[in-house]
Amino acid sequence: MTSIDPANLPKHIAIIMDGNGRWAKKRLLNRIEGHKKGTDAVRNIVRASREIGIEYLTLYAFSEENWKRPKSEVSALMTLLKEFLISEFSEMQENGIRLNAIGRTEKLPEAVRKTLSETITKTSSNRDMVLTLALSYGGRQEIADSVKRIAFLIEKGDISVNEVTEDLISGCLYTAQIPDPDLLIRTSGEYRISNFLLWQIAYTELYITPTLWPDFGKDEYLAAIADFQGRERRFGGT
Ligand code: FPP
């Protein structure tokens, strides 16, 4: 197993979990089976993150664009999400994991919203790791919502145009309470960002692997972290 330096961990890891459909297709299975296997991978990576000592883990679980998928697939994903929240609750409590969600979660079905908000409330005093699920999330929509909030503050006279700074914009995003990701992992070999955390990843290190999400496990997760630790981050400086 790859060894990593515990003194130089990425504080925040974000993951674009891609490839569930292809994983299923390769096995002549229904796409939903891929999402089920993908849910097992989520469970393993959440557990591994906590063991390693990652403070913030953000998972792209459902994008704004995912609503365009067939109704049956959307509905299966919603069911898996709800089941995941219920089955993982006790482990979140035992391991000090606080659940958080970003995105236009008001669009989720009532039953999912209810379980989600109950889990967020019940885990709110946990302090060891923040697990953020991006649900009905789109980076451009997030920026548009932030601009609206700022325009509203200016319109009310609470702030002036000169007070619009990068920090103010960051503070009006859904991720206001979360540091920017240090490492972004994308599985299934696609070299794109797919509208994920557009503002926040300005200086994030990228790790793209051909491994399909259901096959992504702790070994490769450690390899991604070790790869990150071997990089020199300059943040635009020399
Ligand atoms: C991409 O695979 C994955 C998704 C659209 C959603 C990710 C969902 C899960 C991992 C399961 C449920 C989530 C949680 C948090 C329990 P794809 O369908 O786009 O794969 P493809 O590109 O190969 O078709």
TrEMBL record:
GO biological process, one term: polyprenol biosynthetic process
Keywords: Magnesium, Metal-binding, Transferase
Listed EC numbers: 2.5.1.-
Residues annotated as catalytic: 18, 66 (proton acceptor)
Cofactor(s) named in the record: Mg(2+)
Cofactor note: Binds 2 magnesium ions per subunit.
Molecular function per GO: ditrans,polycis-polyprenyl diphosphate synthase [(2E,6E)-farnesyl diphosphate specific] activity; magnesium ion binding
Enzyme class: transferase
Similarity comment text for this entry: Belongs to the UPP synthase family.
Function of the molecule: Catalyzes the condensation of isopentenyl diphosphate (IPP) with allylic pyrophosphates generating different type of terpenoids.
Subunit annotation: Homodimer.
Full protein name: Isoprenyl transferase
